[in-house]
Amino acid sequence: MSWPAYDIDIGLDTIKNILDPKLFRDLALKHDIAYGIAIAKLRKLKKIRQYQIEGLSERHLRRIETGKQHASIKNLQALSTAHNMKLNDYLNKLAVYAGAALALLT
Fold first, then answer.
1. DSSP assignment of 37-97, as one string?
2. Cα separation of 69 and 92, whole Å?
């Protein structure tokens, strides 16, 4: 359902979250883990060490890579810069690896 005049959009995920919040949290956790695995994989492929990501502490990056914390847009920008990639290109590459990791988690 969508109410463009009010910038409101309710999708299937929103309805599922309302009906079964635990299911949605479990799904979100799997996505966080999959993206964390993908972030770590890309970083390791480029031979970038955790401490080399400017603007992101090793501890924070470790939490992102283990799925214990979401990566903010600021974090993703720092990662894309460290990889010498435009943010959009980094996100596209990340999505491919995250998709593969998610398939293994389900």
1. HHHHHHHHHTT--GGGSTTS-HHHHHHHHTTSSPPPHHHHHHHHHHTT--HHHHHHHHHHH
2. 20
Instruction: Tell me the percentage of the chain whose pLDDT exceeds 70.
Output: 91
Which residues, in sequence order, are CB contacts of 57 under 8 Å at separation 6+? none
CATH class of the region 2-105: mainly alpha
pLDDT in tens, 15-40: 777 777 777 778 788 889 999 999 99
Distance CA 34, CA 80 (A): 18
Tell me if 40 sits within 8 A of 33, measured CB to CB: no
Per-domain residue ranges of the chain:
2-105
